[in-house]
UniProtKB/TrEMBL annotation:
Residues 30-358 form the Glycoside hydrolase family 3 N-terminal domain. Residues 1-17 form the signal peptide. This is beta-N-acetylhexosaminidase. Its EC number is 3.2.1.52. InterPro entries: GH, Glyco_hydro_3_N, Glyco_hydro_3_N_sf, NagZ_Beta-hexosaminidase. It comes from Arcobacter roscoffensis. The keyword Signal applies. It catalyses: Hydrolysis of terminal non-reducing N-acetyl-D-hexosamine residues in N-acetyl-beta-D-hexosaminides. It is an enzyme of class 3 (hydrolase). GO terms for molecular function: hydrolase activity. Belongs to the glycosyl hydrolase 3 family. It comes from the Bacteria. SUPFAM superfamilies: (Trans)glycosidases (SSF51445). Keywords: Glycosidase, Hydrolase, Signal.
């Protein structure tokens, strides 16, 4: 057994050498494919997140206001002054740009709340009811606020269609611009345009559509096979064709008409054949939080990262918000081992890093 492991290790070392990559370089490339949540309203050289960024070239972080274990406490965000200091310190840890991300859709989903001293952002439903001029002003204000506070990546806009009135996670939370794809396209376009003016990356979500679901993928398995409609793909088709996409986030929904075995985040058929080949998407695809129960309750970390990367996902999101925090080293070691075993191609890692580097030029 030891001899086999030695031969395998030697083979992989030679492989990396032929590609001009050391073990450390491969580990850093894996880390660049991770956006990680962490606890702390400040950062110092002794903090784990500082070391993750400094030592491994972590690709990005995601910020939250509330501590999931004690909602009376703050996780990362207290007020504008504190946030600017935090993001500045994070950004200065390494020379290369760090993705500093947040969920600031508006309405129910916003981490920068007026109660903390930030400007309010209206829900997607409210924005679409007020018209284009209101939308442009609202999203101009939002984008400027993000830039001023050192945030360069916003997990919005939602381009899910409001087609299921019983949908608790999109429809009832007013996160959709409407059931008409044209209306969704109109307001999502304004969101992307205003974000780009401030150098803030926007993320269309949740591919290939979460608006028809009955369940919530935060809580468990969600099957949209009988409810999903082809029109849910129209916002992606249009926005991709018209260069109005910076990033796309996958959904943890299952649709056996698209893939009989895996939910979208882990599906090659959905993320590569449909999104990349059929819709011609060339940019970065990020997973939704891989600690949501739709994934974590059914797949091991090893299977999750292997399937996600092989499906076409370029950035793995671990928000460390819904479950026991996962360490960056654990993610790196898991992916690295799968590369050694031949379960993940090194080419996938290299390609993802190239896509991320192109993305960083937009900041």
């Amino acid at each position: 057994m030891i001899k086999k492991l030695f031969v395998l290790s030697l083979f992989v070392s030679c492989l990396f050498a032929n590609e001009n990559y050391t073990k450390k370089q491969v580990e850093n490339m894996i880390a660049k494919m991770v956006v990680l949540g962490f606890h702390g309203t400040d950062v110092s050289v002794n903090d784990k997140i500082y070391k993750d960024i400094k030592n491994y070239n972590l690709g990005g972080v995601i910020l939250f206001d509330k501590d999931p274990n004690d909602k009376s406490k703050r996780k990362n965000i207290v007020n504008p002054t504190q946030l600017k200091t935090l993001t500045s310190k994070l950004q200065n840890i390494k020379v290369e740009k760090l993705l500093i991300s947040i969920d600031q859709e508006g309405g129910v989903v916003q981490r920068l709340k007026p109660a903390y001293g930030f400007k309010y952002t209206s829900s997607a439903q409210k924005v679409s009811s007020m018209g284009e001029n209101f939308a442009r002003q609202e999203y101009q204000t939002l984008a400027k606020q993000l830039k001023e506070n050192g945030i360069n990546l916003n997990f919005a806009p939602v381009v899910d269609l409001a087609i299921n009135p019983k949908n608790k996670v999109i429809y009832k939370l007013k996160r959709s611009y409407g059931k008409d794809p044209k209306q969704v396209i109109k307001y999502a376009s304004i969101f992307v345009e205003e974000s780009r003016k401030q150098g803030v990356i926007s993320v269309l979500k949740h591919f290939p559509g979460h608006g028809s679901s009955y369940g919530d993928s935060h809580k468990g398995f969600v099957d949209v096979t009988k409810t999903w409609k082809q029109e849910e793909m129209k916002p992606y088709e249009y926005l991709i064709q018209n260069n109005k996409v910076d990033m796309i986030m996958s959904a943890h929904v299952f649709n056996k008409e698209m893939d009989r075995n895996y939910p979208a985040t882990l599906s090659y058929d959905i993320n590569t054949i449909i999104l990349r080949d059929m819709l011609n998407y060339k940019g970065v695809l990020i997973s939704d939080d891989l600690q949501m129960k739709a994934i974590s309750s059914h797949y091991s970390l090893e299977d999750t990262v292997t399937l996600a990367i092989n499906s076409g996902v370029n950035i793995l999101l671990f928000a460390n918000q819904l479950a026991k925090p996962v360490k960056l080293e654990t993610i790196i070691n898991t992916v690295y081992t799968q590369i050694q075993k031949g379960k993940i191609s090194l080419d996938k890692i290299v390609d993802s890093n190239k896509k991320i580097e192109t993305l960083l030029q937009k900041i």
